[in-house]
UniProtKB/TrEMBL annotation:
PANTHER family: POLYSACCHARIDE DEACETYLASE FAMILY PROTEIN (AFU_ORTHOLOGUE AFUA_6G05030). Residues 83-102 are annotated as: Disordered. It comes from the Archaea. It holds the Pfam family Polysacc_deac_1. Residues 16-266 form the NodB homology domain. Coiled coil: none annotated. CDD domains: CE4_HpPgdA_like. This is Polysaccharide deacetylase.
Amino acid sequence: MSEATVCLSIHFDAVSTWLWAYDSWDMPTRHSRGVYGADVGAPRLLDLLDQYDVPSTWCIPGHTIESFPEICEEVHAHGHGVQHHGWTHKGPSTYESKGAEKRDIERGIESIRDLTGEKPSGYASPAWDFSEHTLDILQELSFEWDSSVMAADFQPHYLYGGWAAPEDGPFQRGEPTDIVELPASWERDDFPPFTYTWSRPHRMGYVPEDAIFQKWYDQFDWMYEHLEDGLFVLTLHPQVIGQSHRLMRLETFLEHVHSMPGATFKTMDEVATEFRNSNPQRTD
């Protein structure tokens, strides 16, 4: 029997994604999509997770915590994990220096500490972007796990550092660090296929939604059938998945996972801790 694990990684960007990822500071209609996520999508999603007693991990920018404190407090009060997703929603590789990137991450840590009383253990980078300094910063700030890179699809592993990509030589992947990687995937993210923007940067949106949800089923079912201890990380955004028709499809997916013997939902921190305990990193 497969011991499959599903982690719901809720990226609660709210307005921040429109300000930093889309440079829409003077576009109130775009802002309103983030407000919808905070006022409508997030409460609906919390209700659904409560209904099925499903734990989840909310990766929340500090900007969202400080802009919408009440709903963020509800997320924490409902027992879901709260982890790091920047203070801004600015891609790490866009910072002008290591110091500027580190200050943003430190500010995000304090926002989460103010909300939960604890330092976050995990990090999901905005837009799944890394700079040349990001990994060093995560190590310096004692993060235990990350969910941003895509060197695997269904298997946790230790994140590699010290890589090199010379123009005139082979790629060098480096050596494993002590940070656990819980693999992310654009194939299991609701934002790219479902989010339409009509001006630069342009996104298509309006894809046949049944095809996207079917892709999630197909990937989960393959993992369940072929791997003994697979990890399925599904990334969701309240302003996207919180639309009524998508919540219905998500509910059906939750029921499907529950119907599979040995399949469970866990927080990402639980999975990272279990992996580290079962696969201690060598220090020699």
